[in-house]
Design goal:
alpha/beta, 6-stranded mixed β-sheet, 4-stranded antiparallel β-sheet, 11 helices
């Protein structure tokens, strides 16, 4: 599978530790690639470089082998983009804006635009300047997806959407992936990436922490078990004696969360059987858990 997007040792230093430093990763054709980090970690800066809006201080980024800054005009023909901050031109209604976008893209069949608007329950006749944040986000999504682009660059695409519309967006992303589109999506909502991403790059404070293959993470069969104890003495004794990997301890509610591999279940049961537990519950190990672990450990450089 060939690389469609390539970022090579890219740095943009805004001073005082702000920016991105030595970013180096690639996105394969037809995959959904997630970019995860807190506010200010470098997600938007990375996407703005890929759109050709910014010039890196050092390093480079390319899309389909073309330099993102020097050949932005050619690249734009292949991209659907949802910016992190939406600021529409003063062209009246959403309908007018989408019509202008369709003309720019050379779209003659407008049927799919209507289907997308219905999908997101969007009233395109509403004036752009009076739209709520959620309505503006839906309009930006319709504009990004309406041409069935080869590549989608989505910066926090579910911002302002309610849970139902967020699920609609996930379904649309999976549909575009099935069609063969390449998708790079930044998000702080882990469910979106758990449901869609093939690989996820974790970043923090402008530095790469780790690159995770979602399929391999799932294959590891790691689960999180929550054990609820009856007394604080039992909780303390368990913490001092256990050989398990404890993620969190809550002294107020007398429970702990521990990560357990499938082959470690026997050990868990053996240790837990020494205590009169109130309950024991299990849930799959998620990207959010993985990210929290990496931050607590200080991160690790990823290639």
């Amino acid at each position: 599978m060939r690389d469609i997007i390539s970022v090579s040792n890219m740095t943009k230093d805004y001073g005082e530790g702000r920016g991105i430093f030595g970013f180096d990763f690639s996105v394969r054709e037809g995959e959904v690639f997630g970019l995860v980090g807190t506010n200010g970690s470098g997600k938007t800066t990375t996407l703005r470089h890929l759109m050709g809006f910014l010039r890196p201080d050092s390093g480079s980024c390319t899309i389909m082998g073309m330099d993102c800054r020097k050949e932005a005009g050619k690249i734009m023909k292949h991209i659907g983009y949802v910016p992190g901050e939406i600021d529409f031109p003063d062209v009246g209604s959403g309908t007018s804006f989408l019509k202008i976008q369709a003309q720019f893209l050379g779209l003659k069949d407008r049927e799919y635009i209507g289907r997308l608007a219905n999908m997101f329950k969007l009233d395109t006749d509403a004036p752009l300047k009076r739209m709520s944040k959620g309505m503006k986000q839906k309009t930006a999504l319709v504009a990004a997806f309406m041409s069935h682009p080869d590549i989608l660059l989505l910066d926090e695409p579910s911002t302002g959407l309610d849970p139902l519309m967020r699920d609609t967006l996930i379904e649309l992303i999976l549909s575009e992936k099935k069609r063969g589109a390449t998708i790079l999506m930044s998000s702080h909502i882990f469910k979106e990436l758990d449901d869609t991403a093939d690989r996820v790059l974790f970043i923090d404070s402008g530095k790469q922490l780790d690159l995770v293959d979602r399929q391999l993470l799932s294959k590891e069969g790691q689960m999180i078990y929550r054990l609820g104890f009856k007394t604080s003495d039992d909780l303390d004794t368990f913490i001092n004696d256990t050989s398990l990997s404890v993620l969190h301890m809550n002294e107020k509610y007398l429970h702990i969360d521990a990560t357990v591999q499938n082959n470690g279940l026997e050990k868990l049961i053996s240790e837990a059987s020494r205590y009169d537990l109130r309950y024991m519950r299990a849930r799959p190990f998620s990207l959010e858990n993985y990210y929290s672990d990496i931050l607590e450990k200080g991160g690790k450089e990823s290639a």
